[in-house]
Structure formats: structure tokens, C-alpha cells
Amino acid sequence: MPTLLSTPPFTARGPEVHGHRGCRGLRPENTLGAFLHALSLGVDVIELDVVISADRQVVVSHEPWLNSQICLDPNGERICSNDREQFNIYQMSYVEIRRCDCGLLRHPGFPEQVSSPAYKPLLSEALATLEAASQQLEHPPLGYSVEIKSSPEGDNIFHPEPAEFLSLVLAELSAAQVLARTTLLSFDVRILQLAHQLQPNLATCLLVEENLPWSSSIDNLGFTPTTFGPDFHSVTEKAVRALRTDFPGLRLVPWTVNEPADMQRLLALGVDGMTTDYPDRLLSILSREVW
């Protein structure tokens, strides 16, 4: 495994703006178009999800199957919602995956989304595209939040087991020379525990959605990660105060915060950043220039 030199340099401009799946509210999720648009707006961090193809390519995708809401099949036809097994990305070659459009169908939950033809890119292509565009725009060093989508139930069905999954992802991040600006996210504690064991300096984020006390979730992990990522609905003044007391220095970046009123409330509670489908809204509230 490669050795990290440092943890990500975080912005001094205030709470970080994390573009969720690029900017899902504005462009098709986890596509090059979404990432480039988020970059052009001026986000601090690009958040994206990764899965593995049958030929062991690291693919940018939230689900390890083709989502019938937003993807067409390799022949350009609509997908039946119960065809997860038929369009299991872990059983498809990347050549076949790339033939599937995942940008023409606007996500029904995001009416502002501008649809356009798009495919699921490889992580390597997404990083290379963003690094080149960032340099061209003279953007401050861009951070990456890379979520590994795995679960014990999905092992060897929708993805490889944690050791192989992690190895494939770290190899791509290392090759792109972005490890020092990357935070590894997961709901799967096995991934984070293994990452911490192999790369103690790697920035990690524990994602949680259950109603356990935050301290219990972190204790169950077995080490204190760099960042804690709860569902924003669970972020209260009491919870934040307890987190700051029990885990000083732990960064708090809740997800997925889309409404301006919720953004304002969380800013008042002193969060370190927010993951949002609408980075333009958060940037406006923070009075930062939208590029």
C-alpha cells in the first residue's frame, strides 16, 4: 500500500462545501458533467461513490447496479425497477457499463437538474478530468470525498470483500496523486477499520444513519476517524456539544443538506462542512463567489 504524506488541507474560508455526487440537484449524479459544474461553482470538495465492475475497474456509481430511475440499459431501453440482478455492475464489464446512459433521464426528485447524455466514468477518468480542470481554473487544491459502497450482505454479490475493494480504490487514488487530499467515506466499518490499519494517516469519515448515540457509533468503529458524517436531521445543539466534548478535533460534516433553512441552522451549530446536492445554495449563504 502507498504511504500518505499528509491529511487533506481544509479550507480557511469557513465551513467546507461538499458537492454531493458532484451536484445532484443541478446535473446528473456522479457524472463528469456534475463534477465539472460543481468545480466551476467553487466547491471545496467533490463527493462521489465507487463500485467495482466485473473486470475489476473502479467505477463511479452510487448503486452497484443500474438505477432504473436514471439509467438506460446498454441498448438504450428503460430498465424495469426489479432488474437489480440483471444489471449488477459487479457482473458487468466496464465496456458494457459505459454503453449505458445515466444522464438523459432526469432524477424525479430533482426538478432543477439539467439532463444531458452521460455515462458512469471510471474513478481514474473522473480524477484526471477534475485535476486538469482545477489547474486550468486556478482553483484552490480540490478535496475529494470517496465513498466505498459496501456491506457484509453484498460481499461477492455486488462487490468484492473489503480487502480487495479497498486495495483497488487506493491504487487509483495513489496513481492520481490525490491521496493526501482525499477522505475515505463509508457506512461499512470494516472498510474504515482496514483502511486505518493499513494507512493510519489516511483521512477517514464514518457515515451513520442509525439512531445510535454518536459516541456509540464511533466507539464501535474502534478508533476516532478524521470526520464524522451523520444524517443532518440528527444534528442538534446537544449532540454537537457532546461530540466536541468527547472527541475534540473530530470534524463534523453532515449529509445531505439541501434546504437553505437547514443550512443556516447547521451553520449556527458550528459544523465543519456540509454535503449538499445544491452547492450553489450553500455558497450563496456563505457569501462566497460562485465562479
From TrEMBL:
InterPro entries associated with the record: GP_PDE_dom, PLC-like_Pdiesterase_TIM-brl
GO molecular function: phosphoric diester hydrolase activity
Domain GP-PDE: 15-286
Protein name (Swiss-Prot/TrEMBL): Glycerophosphodiester phosphodiesterase
Organismal lineage: Bacteria, Pseudomonadati, Bacteroidota, Cytophagia, Cytophagales
Alphabetical list of PROSITE patterns matching this protein: GP_PDE
GO biological process terms on file: lipid metabolic process
Database matches in PANTHER family: GLYCEROPHOSPHODIESTER PHOSPHODIESTERASE (PTHR46211:SF14), GLYCEROPHOSPHORYL DIESTER PHOSPHODIESTERASE (PTHR46211)
